[in-house]
Specification:
With 139 residues, this protein is of the alpha/beta class. The chain has seven helices and four strands, in the order βααβααααβαβ. The chain is globular.
């Protein structure tokens, strides 16, 4: 099963120094590394954009952009954005507000039967309403 990896997890391996990671973060990074080795880690353009945003120098930006080139974006189409809007409306009707990127991640994961690997607790709230499956670490 493929796994759509959220910005919060990609950042552990691509934007954070390993010596600054907590034990839980190191475990998540190990899981991400395994998913990459297995060819199961997936990304979408909005996650790539989040990862590349806020980089302090052009050289850091280029290094990160080059690393991300190894992971092609999952193609997105009109149906993905319409599903995301519908999911947003459903969540909102139940008192849960989502960011556009989070709800797009949910819509893409549902339509492709992907799990979502994230450290963002908001996804547990979405999973109470939407048929998303959250990836659990194996260790």
């Amino acid at each position: 099963m493929n796994v759509l990896v959220d910005t919060s997890v990609w950042s552990l391996g691509l934007r954070r120094a390993p010596h600054n990671l907590s034990t839980a973060e190191q475990t998540n990074l190990t899981e991400l590394t395994e998913l990459v080795k297995e060819g199961r880690a997936r990304i979408i353009g909005p996650i790539r954009q989040e990862l590349l945003s806020g980089i302090k120098t052009q050289s850091q930006f280029e290094r990160l952009r080059t690393k991300l080139e190894a992971f092609p974006d999952e193609p997105l189409g009109t149906a993905d954005f319409e599903s995301a809007a519908s999911a947003y409306n459903l969540c909102r009707s139940r008192g849960i507000v989502a960011t556009p990127t989070d709800i797009l991640i949910c819509a893409v994961a549902v339509s492709r039967a992907f799990y979502i690997f994230t450290t963002d607790p908001d996804f547990r709230r979405y999973a109470a309403i939407l048929p998303v499956q959250i990836h659990s670490r194996r260790r």
